[in-house]
């Protein structure tokens, strides 16, 4: 087992990892920018190292500083959290070259899944259902038209190097295709320095359903059920639930088994998420994330398994603590992402939190790195906390969530709490009746 883990992240996820390491008796090292000297993850870690000025590229994305911090403190492993360097294959390779364990998959697996065309090809080869579309990149308009005619309109043009919803364009008919192709290519080139694009069928009212998987790196793979993350704004998840209100037990185990077998065959190591769009009873792979996700907490709630413990175990060579047969699903869980943003316009609202009071009681978990008097720096993302609620069934979970939202107090800044108070009372949400466009439509109506 590791002696000391350096946590290459900040905010609630740095605390999340720190807690798991402490439970396992492992020393922790926090890294921080000058803007985060007072942050909770710095206060609670056994040691801390300042790695640079506020902009992420000079601190949390600065590989050399982080490797130097490992060497100074003698850390033998790095947990990257999510975001920042968590899906940076070069970082994983550099750590390996310094004999420091990256708590995550191999650089090669990160690389495959970071290239959407390669990821889709790999998924298909592993028996995962994919969205019908071009075999690889499309080179010109003629080829694009041929593929689109074959799969039928509407189609979506996507950047191979894509991420964060950029470089995607929909063409409703052949008349839109030329412009869509050109714009997607230009955007992709500008954003990612790679203008390769591919085409797939555009699904009109899908849900976003993702499967949590784990590989032990030695040919074993398990799944921990799915999460429904259909409530999104600009491709950013807002509210997540496990299990999905849309799936039955047969669909759950069918897609779960496909994913578990795929990661086993890939020889994948650690946590990962296979993301699908789901429409009319069919799953369509869109991407795989090779890291822990923000919403891993709801999977923990319904399985009782600490995913960060598992990540650390697997990375240290100890294997998974569970087999597929040990994994059972209990009740229902919902996560609300509480952002320091205006709940209507979503404009970030940094500043000082004058009063912070979190709800408690049975089935309530709050993961947050903030406290009363904390000043939110303007340099990073606006997530200030996650409210995770568990109940024996969805109805109980929603009742508890409504009560917890009433108790939650964040003064001094604007937050998205009022949005969740509206959502929890909405009949469509109560019925689990929503797709990936529901939230934006609801917000546009100003309901
Ligand atoms: P990114 O990595 O940029 O987030 P994804 O491939 O994960 O890109 O897609 C992001 C979002 O774009 C999806 O959650 C979905 O809302 C939409 N999307 C992607 N592919 C399709 C498709 N074939 N049909 C409909 N919507 C799509």
UniProtKB/TrEMBL annotation:
Domain ATP-grasp as annotated: residue spans: 120-316
Keywords from the named record: ATP-binding, Biotin, Fatty acid biosynthesis, Fatty acid metabolism, Ligase, Lipid biosynthesis, Lipid metabolism, Magnesium, Metal-binding, Nucleotide-binding
Catalytic activity annotation: N(6)-biotinyl-L-lysyl-[protein] + hydrogencarbonate + ATP = N(6)-carboxybiotinyl-L-lysyl-[protein] + ADP + phosphate + H(+)
Statement: the UniProt record of this protein carries the keyword Chloroplast: no
GO BP terms, alphabetized: fatty acid biosynthetic process
Top enzyme class: ligase
Molecular-function GO terms, alphabetical: ATP binding; biotin carboxylase activity; metal ion binding
Span of domain Biotin carboxylation: 1-444
Pathways involved: Lipid metabolism; malonyl-CoA biosynthesis; malonyl-CoA from acetyl-CoA: step 1/1
InterPro entries from the UniProt entry: ACC_Biotin_Carboxylase, Acetyl_CoA_COase_biotin_COase, ATP-grasp, BC-like_N, Biotin_carboxylation_dom, Biotin_COase_C, CPAse_ATP-bd, PreATP-grasp_dom_sf
EC number(s) given by UniProt: 6.3.4.14
Domain of life of the source: Bacteria
Entry keyword annotation includes Ribonucleoprotein: no
PROSITE patterns: ATP_GRASP (PS50975), BC (PS50979), CPSASE_1 (PS00866), CPSASE_2 (PS00867)
Subunit structure: Acetyl-CoA carboxylase is a heterohexamer of biotin carboxyl carrier protein, biotin carboxylase and the two subunits of carboxyl transferase in a 2:2 complex.
PANTHER family: BIOTIN CARBOXYLASE, CHLOROPLASTIC, PYRUVATE CARBOXYLASE SUBUNIT A
Function: This protein is a component of the acetyl coenzyme A carboxylase complex; first, biotin carboxylase catalyzes the carboxylation of the carrier protein and then the transcarboxylase transfers the carboxyl group to form malonyl-CoA.
Protein name: Biotin carboxylase
Organism of origin: Aminobacter anthyllidis
Underlying gene: accC
